[in-house]
Amino acid sequence: MSGKTPQPIRGTQDIFGADAESFAFVVETFERVRRLYRFRRVEMPVFEKTEVFARSLGETTDVVSKEMYSFDDRGGESLTLRPEFTAGIARAYLTDGWKQYAPLKVATHGPLFRYERPQKGRYRQFHQLDAEVIGAAEPQADVELLTMADQLLKELGIADGVTLQLNTLGDGDSREAWRAALIEYFSAHRAELSEDSQDRLERNPLRILDSKDSRDKAFVADAPRIDDYLSAEAQDFFAAVTGGLDAAGVAWSRNPALVRGLDYYRHTAFEFVTDRLGAQGTVLGGGRYDGLMESLGGPATPAVGWAAGIERLAMLVGDREIAGPDVSLAVEDNALIAKGIAATAALRAAGFSVEVFDSGSPRKRYDKAAKVQARALVSLNTGGFNIRSAPDTPDVDRINQVLSQFGS
RNA sequence: GCGAUCGUAGCUCAGUUGGUUAGAGCGCCGGUUUGUGGUACCGGAGGUCGGGGGUUCGAGACCCCUCGAUCGCCCCA
Q1: Protein-contacted positions of strand B (CB under 7 Å)
Q2: Whether the predicted interface score ipTM is above 0.85
Q3: Counting CB atoms within 10 angstroms of each CB, which of A17, A85, A290, A315 has the fewest?
Q4: Shortest CA–C1' contact from A369: which nucleotide?
Q5: A273 pLDDT exceeds 80?
Q6: 3-state secondary structure of A39
């Protein structure tokens, strides 16, 4: 009849127990903090036309060609499960006329999909928190966004092991000049670079800067720095961001090797990094993407945003205690099951969380009920209800009152 | 796409240089005891040792293939 049980898809996870509690804690904290900063909640589609991501990411990259979950629908149109939030939100900003709300602060969270090899903190279906400010060209937007991220990490209780690394990529011209200088510099040492970096020289030269290969690191130290190519405006912008962070009390450190692969990034780039998650140390990252809207056919629109991996945050948060119920009820006699059900319903209607034990060996129900660490432990037998609780437990009187209507 | 490590009960793991009928703890189910904040004891269910092939008198163990997991490289929107 039944064959072999289907296995879960590689890179997906069934999150349960303490892990699920940590996950929920991360999301709840994000929702709370996001309100403090007045970011509006948005719900976005899980899939979009492939074009949305292909155009925003730049068609050439591996990212688009190999790492997206794309498929044709029945009409023959190519669709893609969202690999990030930003492109979809940008699309909505344009198609839904959200310009009328600019500057628009939005936040969301949910599943994302990337066809990658799973490893620590990396999954094919994973989950992110996301925050974006669209239509704000001022550095204050960057500051507010980063301050929110900083407060989130603090409220999650993980700020200690995490540092904010900050860099600027300059405006379009600064960035191009720096890029050209890097290519020239690394080309001169081409033969001494790692094979991977020789390849990167063509595909993505900025990425040589964060190579893990020791052969590359020697040259990275003396590579041209963005600071020497920044326009006066770009310098001012970065100074305003760092000054704002200082004013807000957000600790940061400069990382001149922090780069973004995609061309639409300008000015601020940042990552909150930890060394406690193995090779996947970035816990929250983002930057300013002033060039993105145009790649989707919209008007030039400044924007800045970040995303954070919920799984990684949950790992840092650690195991959360699963709180016991308000009441744990052991029905120690099968003749009293209906009475137990009635009492349980009444307690829940009164706002108490209740767990009932009315199956299995009647003699063992009490022990099971005791095990869940309820604030009040109630047994029901022919002698009626019998409450046990710690001396100062609040609400015991109310619980008693609810139970009293069922006799004793 | 590449590499390393690892797959034994629901979970965590023992299992000797290859040797009789594959074990423990926890959990689950039942019973006895206790009789009220987690007791103790007894019993039970649950395994084609990831799968396939090979070496051997004999494989959970050794070899090959395969599947899966973990971690790392590449990539990282």
Answers
A1: 1-3, 28-39, 68-77
A2: yes
A3: A17
A4: B38
A5: yes
A6: coil
Q: Identify the structural domains of chain A with CATH numbers, from first to last.
A: 17-171+231-317 (3.30.930.10), 327-404 (3.40.50.800)
Nearest CA-CA partner of A372 in A386, A385, A354, A390: A354
Amino acid at A252: W
Predicted pLDDT at A378: 92
* Residue for token pair 């120690």: A332
User: Using only C-alpha atoms, what is the Rg of chain A?
Assistant: 27
| pLDDT above 70 (res A109) | yes
Whole-number distance in Å between A367 CA and B40 C1': 14
Where are the alpha helices (H) located in A227-336, listed in sequence order?
A: 232-248, 292-295, 310-317
> If pLDDT is split at 50, 70 and 90, which confidence band does A319 have?
confident
Least confident of A258-267, A303-312, A339-348, A357-366: A357-366
Residues in chain A, how many?
408
Q: Which strand ranges, in their side-by-side order, compose the sheet holding A376-381?
A: A354-357, A327-331, A376-381, A384-389
